[in-house]
Amino acid sequence: MSSTVNSSRASLRSLSTDSGIDSDIDGPTGQILHGPLNKINHVGLNGLRIGGTSGLDTGRFTASAVVEMKYHIEETDDILNPRNYSLLSSIDPDVYPPALKPHLGEESPGEGNLRRFIIVDVNVDKIYGARMRSYFAYHKVDALFHVLESSEEGKCAEQVMGVCEALKKFGIDRRRDPILSFGGGVVLDVSALAANLWRRNTPIIKIPTTLLANVDAAVGVKTAVNFCCEKNKIGTYCAPLAVYIDSDTFLSTLPPRHVANGMGEILKMALIKDLALFEHLEEDGSRCTKRVLRRSIQGMLEELEPNFMETTLYRIVDFGHTFSPMLEMASLESKYPLLHGEAVNIDMMLCMYISEELALISSEDVERVMRVVKSLGLPIWHDSFTLDMIESSKVDITKSRGGRLRLPVVSGEIGSFVFLDSVQDVVMSRAFTKLERAGRSTVNGYLA
Predict the structure, then answer these.
(1) Cα separation, 448 vs 441, whole angstroms
(2) Taking a C-beta distance cutoff of 8 angstroms, is the pair 446, 397 a contact?
(3) CB within 8 A of 277, min separation 6: which ones?
(4) Are 243 and 208 spatial neighbours (Cβ–Cβ below 8 Å)?
(5) Beta bridge partners of 237
(6) Active site annotation includes 168
(7) In angstroms, rounded to a whole number, what is the distance separating the alpha carbons of residues 269 and 417?
(8) Measured between alpha carbons, how far is 325 from 260 in angstroms, rounded to an integer?
(9) Residue 421 φ then ψ, to 5°
(10) Burial letters for 260-295: b for 16+ Cβ neighbours within 10 Å, e otherwise?
(11) Nearest to 349 by CA among 316, 332, 318, 373
């Protein structure tokens, strides 16, 4: 018996080594046991030199690790069609970071008794809720729907706790069953934060249903809610398990204002790094084609991937996001509350005038941008925007950016940039005056 066990142990150890795991077998039961050779939970004293062993002599220990992030953003068609199995994808628990385990339909063995906790935007639920429930019923999935308000005012910690309470009652298996979230930026941010907090991270699949979420909230790894009347003050970094984009289904019912809202973020990427995308918007900004979507997502990922955790504070994706957070929150108390992309656009137009004041770009380029903004249906002004707000924004953002303003602005030509670590008050005042003057010729902030 002993020789047989040893032979089996050697065979298994050989196989396990190929996968990076060394194991032993308990002979009588055949149970796999993790032993010293696999270096699991045996640090330093057993030869795995994580951080070295000098702490045994000095009392000073060092821990070091690299946290890997990997997820896929994938276009899919007709995601609510029962023959589309994307929403049945599960989690592969044996890899790190957790990976998507695609459902192969009728060819997927052992995938019975599926359970899904589904978070859905209240407006999306009104339009697509019946189809969603029919989809999961067809596949005999034990599904619980948790409907969320999608307003900026409701983007709060209470919503996050509400999701967590529902998760507890549902009893989700976070090693097997991903959370699904259908919605725009607000719902995806709330959902992702709740998922990240529940049991210290429950994998989530995002299905963006607005143009803004397609190119912004669903693409990155930041989660957040508003706090103390300030935007996104509580949040984490948490990569989704996957993102499924079905623009043909969900964008077809999106109101025109929300299409324009998303185009604000697309214009951001065009102005700061992608002249070709800007020229495409100049030619035909009325249609958001697959080419526009893909180019915007690609551009965003190029900037985020090397800097997911924002350790580098010079970030061109912050273009339009220096003064807009305070403006967006202040506008909620006004007659005409701004959507996120609208506030971002007003911020970008101020920055365009700053660039013009500093002779970084020509007046002709500013006019080109104005024409595109008008064609996209984005506002350039809001009465809540003041010089005092700009000064407060500068102080607040300088703290979060390590003591410097690090303001990305267009420089040289559209699609190129430079960072400004400070802006003189006189330059800011002149730029604001130009923006305000242009705003006087608008109808509720929109160019006529």
Answers:
(1) 8
(2) no
(3) 266, 269, 270, 292, 295, 296, 299, 415
(4) yes
(5) 222
(6) no
(7) 11
(8) 18
(9) -80, -15
(10) bbbbbbbbbbbbbbbeebbebbeeebeebeeebbeb
(11) 373
Residue 413 belongs to what H/E stretch?
A: strand 413-420
Q: How far apart are CA 317 and CA 255, in angstroms?
A: 26
First to last CA, the chain: 89
Distance CA 140, CA 143 (A): 9
CB-CB contact of 84 with 78 (8 Å): yes
Show the tokens assigned to 193. 């934060």
- Report how far residue 4's alpha carbon sits from residue 6's, in angstroms, rounded to the nearest whole number: 5
Catalytic residue, chosen from 101, 155, 222, 273, is: 222
Q: How far apart are CA 391 and CA 372, in angstroms?
A: 28
**In sequence order, what are the residues at sequence separation of 6 or more whose Cβ sits closer than 8 angstroms to the Cβ of residue 166?**
117, 144, 146
Q: Is residue 408 packed enough to be buried (19+ CB in 10 Å), middle (13-18) or exposed (0-12)?
A: buried
Alpha carbon distance 119, 192 (integer Å): 10
Length of the chain: 448
Angstrom distance (rounded) from CA 251 to CA 105: 27
* CB 431 within 8 Å of CB 360: no
What is the rounded distance in angstroms from the CA atom of residue 83 to the CA atom of residue 98? 25
| CB 334 within 8 Å of CB 383 | yes
pLDDT (tens digit, 0 to 9) for every residue of the chain, 448 residues total?
433 333 333 333 333 334 444 444 444 455 555 555 555 555 555 555 556 677 778 888 888 888 888 999 999 999 999 999 999 999 998 888 889 999 987 655 555 689 999 999 999 999 999 999 999 999 999 999 999 999 998 899 999 999 999 999 999 999 999 999 999 999 999 999 999 999 999 999 999 999 999 999 999 999 999 999 999 999 999 999 999 999 999 999 999 999 999 999 999 999 999 999 999 999 987 788 999 999 999 999 999 999 999 999 999 999 999 999 999 999 999 999 999 999 999 999 999 999 999 999 999 999 999 999 999 999 999 999 999 999 999 999 999 999 999 999 999 999 999 999 999 999 999 999 999 999 888 887 887 6
- Whole-angstrom distance, CA of residue 262 vs CA of residue 268: 10
10 Å CB burial of residue 10 (0-12, 13-18, 19+) is exposed
Characterize the bridge pairing of strands 24-26 and 31-33: antiparallel
DSSP state of 44: S
